[in-house]
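Lab notebook, bench 4. We co-purified these components, and the gel suggests they stay together. Before we commit to crystallization screens, I want a quick structural picture of the whole thing.
Request: model the full complex, all chains together.
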Amino acid sequence: MSSTIDPSKSRAYLVGGGIASLATAAYLIRDGRLPGQAISVFEESDQTGGSLDAHGNPEQGYVMRGGRMFDEEAYTCTFDLLSFIPALNDPGKTVKDEFFEFNETFRSHSRSRLVENGRKVDLSSHGFTTRDRIDLIELMMRSEDSLGTRRIDECFQAAFFDTNFWFMWCTTFAFQPWHSAVEFKRYMLRFIQEFPRIETLAGVRRTPYNQYDSIVRPLVIWLTSQGVRFEMNSQVTNLGFRKTGEETTVECIFYTRNGAQLEAAVDANDCVFVTLGSMTADSSLGSMTSAAQLSCTQASGSWALWKTIAAGRPEFGKPSVFADHIEQSL
Ligand SMILES: Cc1cc2nc3c(=O)[nH]c(=O)nc-3n(C[C@H](O)[C@H](O)[C@H](O)COP(=O)(O)OP(=O)(O)OC[C@H]3O[C@@H](n4cnc5c(N)ncnc54)[C@H](O)[C@@H]3O)c2cc1C
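Here is the predicted assembly.
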């Protein structure tokens, strides 16, 4: 695996069929000038999209494990990606054109963002005290290192969690008081432009269809038309490394498909991109009458590959500050 790509000699191997790999493949073709035929995507399931999925049927119902709220200011990279992918319904348009046309016609504008005891809540104020404002500013200015593993409720007074602002913010971005303060800070900085319009959700954009059909399907169809190979039902179980001087590079990808143990040799000119981990790994589904069960089996390839690589390559160190938490839960 070299640090530069030679379009005439290089191949690219992408582990995981989520949006990270799909976007990587698209940019390798557009900006890296790599022919699509030189790109292989290994996906352990039989579906692309990863956490950005959708499936089902009229009899058993439909499932989307994740849902994104597209914000025009924050999603510049996503819109750049969609600006060169043809729309499925009208190949003369891009997915980005289709998206913006839809949002011109159907604008988000909630007239009743919070309801209490059957009545619309007056949202002319966020409900902050001076102390809340100071705590918010402090959180936004502090470094991630200094926040460390603190929870959100360790950074605010209890009354903050009864403000209009908290109810609107936590229901927009799915936060709980016990979630990470660092993650909360990141969202505050990334979505600060939502402050003046959080009570109407006017900044939130939607895709015309479910997000899988609107984004993943056109992307996969375009990548396939470029020659990208999707190795479905292929779980990558380990990577073989070679060390040359100071450089450690991947020389082999080990994977299983339909019970068979397979290997793909990686040349010095090739590139390997691995999505190590997934926020929907080991997720389970509830129903209208039963809660989802907590699964601690770590059955998915995300966990297995992370554990195998971490165990075999201690010199790589821990992927992030959160690795400690993951390790404790293993
Ligand atoms: C409920 C919910 C709400 C969300 N809301 C937002 C939002 O508003 N805005 C936003 O930007 N993001 C949001 N996200 C996050 C966003 O969906 C994810 O960050 C993104 O989809 C992750 O893409 P990925 O390709 O990195 O990983 P994933 O989509 O997780 O893909 C990883 C893929 O790799 C495969 N895989 C794993 N291990 C192996 C292996 N060893 N071999 C082969 N294949 C393997 C998995 O099967 C999976 O398909 C939300 C997610 C959820 C669940």
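Residues 115-202 form one domain. Worth comparing against the SEC data before the next meeting. The chain has three domains: 1-69+78-87+210-275, 115-202, 278-330.
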